[in-house]
Design a protein that fits this description.
With 156 residues, the chain is α/β, with parallel strands linked by helices. The protein folds into two domains: 105 residues, Spore Coat Polysaccharide Biosynthesis Protein SpsA, Chain A, CATH 3.90.550; 44 residues, no CATH class. The chain is 27% helix and 27% strand. It has four helices and eight strands. The strands form three sheets. A four-stranded parallel beta sheet has the order 3-2-1-4, sandwiched between helices. A two-stranded antiparallel ribbon has the order 5-8.
């Protein structure tokens, strides 16, 4: 791995100890190995800090930052962005998971389209009991952030 990773995965978490291991496992399972994952703990009172510390101890690509007081998801993500060293940033909610080839495919796509400014790719939404309930496949390359304001559905 180079000194600067291809992708910085940022996970903002507050009291997501039940789901965080699944999110972290999905990052560890990536076919692209050139990543870092920054877990920003937003003053959790459950097992989130312990789970983050265990991930850091197992894999040097994980880093953990902890706020002592709740700052909210936006400030937590912004802190993750400030710490990120990757060429690209991937937000991952602490209760979500990403497919094993997601980072590799997105990095390859973004490398092939360096003139675009925003990208959105496949979204699959799962429900714990119902299973797959939404499968939205699309690749959008935007030339300007102005077009983003005209979208009605945005997913990170």
């Amino acid at each position: 791995m180079s000194s600067a990773p291809a992708v910085s995965v940022i996970i903002a978490a507050r009291d997501y100890g039940e789901h965080l291991p699944t999110a972290l496992a999905s990052v560890s399972a990536q076919t692209l190995q050139d990543w870092e994952c920054i877990i920003v703990d937003d003053a959790s009172s459950d097992g989130t800090p312990r789970i983050a510390a265990e991930a850091v101890a197992k894999d040097k690509r994980f880093r953990s930052i902890r706020f002592d007081a709740n700052v909210g998801v936006s400030a937590a993500r912004n802190r993750g962005i400030a710490e990120a060293q990757g060429r690209y940033v991937q937000f991952l909610d602490a209760d979500d998971a990403i497919a094993p080839e997601k980072l590799a495919r997105q990095a390859a796509f973004l490398d092939a389209h360096p003139d675009s400014s925003a990208r959105m790719l496949r979204l699959r939404a799962f429900h714990r009991c119902a299973g797959l309930w939404r499968n939205r496949a699309s690749i959008m390359v935007m030339r300007s952030w102005m077009g983003l304001a005209m979208l009605t559905s945005i997913a990170c």
